[in-house]
Automatic annotation (TrEMBL):
Transmembrane segments: none annotated. GO terms for molecular function: GTP binding; GTPase activity. One of its GO terms (cellular component) is cytoplasm. It comes from the Eukaryota. The keyword Chaperone does not apply. Small GTPase required for proper localization of RNA polymerase II and III (RNAPII and RNAPIII). May act at an RNAP assembly step prior to nuclear import. Keywords: GTP-binding, Hydrolase, Nucleotide-binding. Heterodimers with GPN1 or GPN3. Binds to RNA polymerase II (RNAPII). It comes from Phodopus roborovskii (Roborovski's desert hamster). The keyword Flavoprotein does not apply. This is GPN-loop GTPase 2. InterPro entries: Gpn, Gpn2, P-loop_NTPase.
Amino acid sequence: MAGAAPATAFGQAVIGPPGSGKTTYCLGMSEFLRALGRRVAVVNLDPANEGLPYECAVDVGELVGLGDVMDALRLGPNGGLLYCMEYLEANLDWLRAKLEPLRGHYFLFDCPGQVELCTHHAALRSIFSQMAQWDLRLTAVHLVDSHYCTDPAKFISVLCTSLATMLHVELPHVNLLSKMDLIEHYGKLAFNLDYYTEVLDLSYLLEHLASDPFFSHYRQLNEKLVQLIEDYSLVSFIPLNIQDKDSIQRVLQAVDKANGYCFGIQEQRSLEAMMSAAMGADFHFSSTLGIQEKYLASPDQTAEQEAMQL
Ligand SMILES: Nc1nc2c(ncn2[C@@H]2O[C@H](COP(=O)(O)OP(=O)(O)OP(=O)(O)O)[C@@H](O)[C@H]2O)c(=O)[nH]1
Ligand SMILES: [Mg+2]
């Protein structure tokens, strides 16, 4: 008799630029998932990560060390890291052997922050696509620091990077605006938070930029970039404060919906989880309003604070 087919495994590939909060996310999300009763295995795929805050089930550092690569091949940290990823790609049997005994776990992959790995370099995409062949269904969770919302020009560049990442990585995808707890400290937003999360009419961003003498020179370039982003109509964000359980839960609902976990039978599904999978933009819109109220002062409050400072 043929053996039972191996169970499908689910998980998240946590990606995003350096310092966007990937490792902190893996810690917060793994604690949240364990509290929900999921068996979680966190896999560190970033050879540059030091002093991991979470319990690491598999560490790529056991296969290849960034310091050794830099010394042996006389590479800088960036080139060394790309080599490490190519080395992992060429030795995927090692990763498969490490993951196989963990089947039945929910996986979180803490990935390196080198942007090129997610926009045009082939190694990471090839690793993800191999994992899909092992029946491991991943959602790419792409973290972007919410700081970028405070500057329209930086927000356009973040939209471009997010779109390029979505197209290159080729996984079900969720973009997050991380560090929402800091957004008030980063500076004033020109628009409501839902403008950034839903990526609404970007012509307003262009108008905002036109008032800046430096960016007025680049108006045509920005117009073309914005048009490209709107034509694809793929990018949107979910705000995240990793300290806030409600915020993590909203992210998890989106992630579970993207990779199909919410339609599985691994856990007793709550009515709320099923509803959130079934509902669409209205749910996200109302939750974003809630977050706006939580983390951003209203115009009245801001005026009051300014009057007090005078
Ligand atoms: N206030 C606040 N700080 C955060 C949050 N997430 C991460 N940080 C801080 O941001 C810094 C970078 O976080 P990491 O989790 O190391 O970011 P990373 O993306 O793994 O960074 P690299 O591995 O270097 O690419 C750390 O000092 C974290 O404590 C957050 O939600 N709120
Ligand atoms: Mg990290």
